[in-house]
Amino acid sequence: MTNLIEYEDSSDEVRAVYDDIRTTRSSDYINNFWKVLANHPPTLRRTWETLKEVMVSPGEIDPLMRELIYIAVSVTNNCEYCIASHTAAARTKGMSDAMFGELMAIVATANMTNRLANGYQIPVDDKFKTL
Amino acid sequence: MTNLIEYEDSSDEVRAVYDDIRTTRSSDYINNFWKVLANHPPTLRRTWETLKEVMVSPGEIDPLMRELIYIAVSVTNNCEYCIASHTAAARTKGMSDAMFGELMAIVATANMTNRLANGYQIPVDDKFKTL
Amino acid sequence: MTNLIEYEDSSDEVRAVYDDIRTTRSSDYINNFWKVLANHPPTLRRTWETLKEVMVSPGEIDPLMRELIYIAVSVTNNCEYCIASHTAAARTKGMSDAMFGELMAIVATANMTNRLANGYQIPVDDKFKTL
Amino acid sequence: MTNLIEYEDSSDEVRAVYDDIRTTRSSDYINNFWKVLANHPPTLRRTWETLKEVMVSPGEIDPLMRELIYIAVSVTNNCEYCIASHTAAARTKGMSDAMFGELMAIVATANMTNRLANGYQIPVDDKFKTL
Amino acid sequence: MTNLIEYEDSSDEVRAVYDDIRTTRSSDYINNFWKVLANHPPTLRRTWETLKEVMVSPGEIDPLMRELIYIAVSVTNNCEYCIASHTAAARTKGMSDAMFGELMAIVATANMTNRLANGYQIPVDDKFKTL
Amino acid sequence: MTNLIEYEDSSDEVRAVYDDIRTTRSSDYINNFWKVLANHPPTLRRTWETLKEVMVSPGEIDPLMRELIYIAVSVTNNCEYCIASHTAAARTKGMSDAMFGELMAIVATANMTNRLANGYQIPVDDKFKTL
Lengths: 131, 131, 131, 131, 131, 131
Known about the structure:
- The structure is a homohexamer.
- The first copy, chain A, is mainly alpha-helical.
- Chain A is built from six helices and no strands.
- Chains A and B meet through helix 2, helix 3, helix 4, helix 5 and helix 6 of A and helix 2, helix 3, helix 4, helix 5 and helix 6 of B.
C-alpha cells in the first residue's frame, strides 16, 4: 500500500510535482519523503507547495537559518527522517560542524528551560505580554 | 514555597547571579524566570551559566538567530512563558514583524512534515545517513 | 529481563489475559505488545481491560474511526510500534489507501495549526469557552 | 505588533481570505485564529487554503470524524486554542456528549499505550511491517 | 455540556466512585478532575480504578516517589492541571522545597540530554540493548 | 562529521572530561553519548558538568529514584538512546523488574490523565494554586 513511487512509475499529477522539485533544487534526486507522499497525490502537491513557499521563496530569514530552525523543531519532536534529511540540506547550504554544535546546544538548552518554566508554573512578566 | 524572590530579599549566592544577569544584559530588570529559579539556588546558578554560554558567548550563529531557534523549540513545546520572554528578547535584538511571520511559518511547516514522515514511517535515504 | 513471554510459557494470570485477547479478536495471534507487557502482569491485565473497553465495546464512534483517532495520537507522539500495529488494525477494519492519506493530511495540518496558535499566543474567542 | 486584524481594517489580500472563510462557512464570524494570522498575509492565505482542502473538501472521512481526529492531535499537543475552537466546531457538526467522552477516552488510552510501547522498547511484529 | 458535577447532583454510578475517592483519600474533597470526568461515567470509573491501582496500591516504589515520577511526566507534557494537583499531593506526602528543586533539575536536564541524543542521532551502545 | 571520538584520539580538552567521567563512575567505559558530544567540546564539558551535578551530587532524592525520574521523562519524549542507557544505569543501581513495571505503569497513567485534563480543559482548583 505505502510504496516508494519512482519517477518512471508516477502518474502525470505526481510527475508534475517531481519535475518542479527537480527544477527548484537543480538536482535529479527525489528523496524518499516525496516518493512516499506520492501515494496520496493531493498531500504531495500541497506539502511541496507549502515547503517551497516557506523554505525557498525570498524572505528576511536566509535559507541556511531556515534549515537550522527546521532542524530545531525536528530534534524537539524526535523525527528521525526530518533530522537526517534537513541536516544534509543544511550542510549543503553551508552549515559548519561548529554551527551544528551550537544549534544542538541551543535546542537542548531551550528544551531544558522550557521545563523549568512549566514545572515552576512561572507567571509571564507584564512587560512580555503582547495581546 | 515557590515565591518570586526579589533582589532585595536574596541571599548572597542568589544575588551574585542576579548581579551577573544585570551586567550581562546591561539592564536592572530581573525577569520572573530567575526570581522563581532562585528558590533552588544551584538550579538558578547552573541554568544562568548554561544560558549565558549558549545564548550570549561568541559563536557562528548570531544572537538574533539564536533567539529564533529558541522560539522554534518553545513554540513546538507550547511553553507560554518561554515564547513570551524570548519573543520579547528577539524583538529587542531586531526581529521584524515579517521575520516573526516567517519564523512561525517555518515552525508550523516543520511540525506538519514531521508528522507526515512519522505517519508514513518513511525510511531514511542512504545518502542522508551519517553515523 | 524484558522478554517476549510466549503463551506456552505464561503463568495462569497472564494466560487468562491471552485467552481473552484471542477470544475478543477471534485470532490466535498475540502481538509483541502483550508479550512484553506480560513481564508485569498487573499492567498487562489493566491495559488490556482498558483497551478492550475503549476500543471494542459498543459506543457512538465506530470501530474504524476509533482506530483512526488512535493513529492520529500515535503519529503525533511518534510511537513507531503503535503506528505500525494500529495501521494494520485499521486496514483490517476497512481503511482504504485514500482514507489513510486523508488521515495523514488531517494529522499533519493539525500539528501545523497547533503551532501557529501557540506561537502567536492567540486568545480563545469568548464563544468557544465552555467551563 | 500582533494585533487582531478586523475585517474593516484589513488589506485587500487579507479581505479576500476573510471573504472566502465567510462564504465557505456560511457565517460572518471570523475567529481570532484568522485575525491573528492576518499579521502575516502569506501565512493566512496558505493556512486557510490548506485547512479548507483538508477539512472541508469531499473525501472518504466524514466532516465530523475529521474534527474528532483534529481534536485528538490538539489534545495530545495541549493546544488550548485548538481544542476550544475545534470542540466548538465538532459540536456544530453533531458531536454528542457521549461521543466527546469516548473521544477523550481513546486519546487518553493511546497516550498511555504509546508510552508503554516506548518504555519497553517493544520490537514491531514482522506482520505489521509495511515498507 | 462539560460541567463540574457536584456530589449532591451525581448519579448513583458517579457517586459510588466519589465515595471510593473519599474513603481512599480520607478526605471529603473531590477535586475538579473527577467532577469533570463524571460527565462520562465509564471514563470516571476506569480512570479512578487505574489511578488507585497505580498510585496507591502496595509496591516497591514509595508513594512520594510515585508522585515525583508523575510530576516529571506532567512537566514534560506541560499539563498545567496535573502539575498543580500532583505538586500539591507530593507536598502532602512530604516533598520538601529542596526535593522539588532537585526534581525540576532532573526533569530539565533529561529534557536537555534527550534532545542532544535525538539531534546527534546517537547509536545505542550494544551493552545497553535488551531485547 | 559526526564521529564517535575515542579516548585515544581525543584532544586534551575532551580527554579531561573523559577522565572525569571514568573517575566519577569508577569504570573505563565511555558510552556513545559522550563520544558523540565530543564533536563539540563546549557542549561535552557543559553537559557532563550539569549531569554530574544533577544526577550524582548529594541531595534529598536518592540516586536510583533520580534514574527513575530521568527514565520517566525519556519515555514521555520517546528518546530511544536515553531510555536504553538510563534503564541500564537504573538496573546497576538496583532497579528490580517489578520496580521497572511499576515505573512504566505510572508513566503510562500520567500520560493518560494529562490528556484527560487537557482535553476537558479542567480548571485548576483554587486550593492547588501556589503563585
